[in-house]
Amino acid sequence: MYQSHDMSGLAESPDWRCWESTMKARTSGGKDILCQLYIPSSRVFSIGQPIPFHVMFSSSAFSLAAFLPYGPTATILAPNKQFTRIKVVRQSVVDVRNALVLGTKTDIWRVDTIGEAECRHSGDGSDWLSFAGEIRIDDSVKVGGFKAGGLTVKDFIELSMIPPDPVKCPFREMRLVIPIRLTTDPWSSDGYMLAVADSDFSAPSTPPDSQSQ
Fold first, then answer.
1. How many domains does the chain have?
2. What is the pLDDT of residues 161-175, one digit of tens each?
C-alpha cells in the first residue's frame, strides 16, 4: 500500500487488494459514497497478530460532511459510539441432517464478532476521506476456521455502516463482507510461510466472495 498522487490518496499494490461497496444516499440532493477497504491480498492472518487495513470514502464534499457523524472514529455527537465499524466475524453453521421443515433440510447458524478495529484518521481531500488501523482478534479465539462433520466455521472481515435512526440518517445501511482465513501461524505482509486464502478456502454461498448492500 502506498500514497498515490491522484485525488483518491491511496493506490493498490501487489500485496494489498481493494474491496468496494457503495453507501446509497437517501436524499435526492445527496450523492452516494464509494467505500473502498484495502486489506492484505492473501487474506490469511495469524490469530495472534493484528490485521492491518486502510479504508477510504469518496464522494462530494457535502456528502462527506454529512457522513462524518456516522464515520469510523469518535465524534462530539457520538464520543462512545461508531456507526461505521470494521470487525472480524465468525460464522458457525451446523448441518441438521435428517431434520425437515416443510420438506426442506435446515441449518442452525450463528454469527459472532471475534475482533474489532482500532481506527484513526489518515488523510483527506476535497472529495475523499481515508482512515487506517488494525483489527485484533479476541484472546478467547484459539483456532481458525474449519469443517468437521456437520460443523463449518468460517471467518470474515466486515465493513458496515448501521445508522442509529435509519429514517433520519442521510445514507442507507451499508455492509461489505470479505472472506478470510485465520491461522495459528505467524503472518507477514508479503505472505511468507502462508498460503493464499483462495488456494484452500472457498467462500460460502452466503455471503459470497464479497457481499455488499
1. 1
2. 999 899 999 999 999
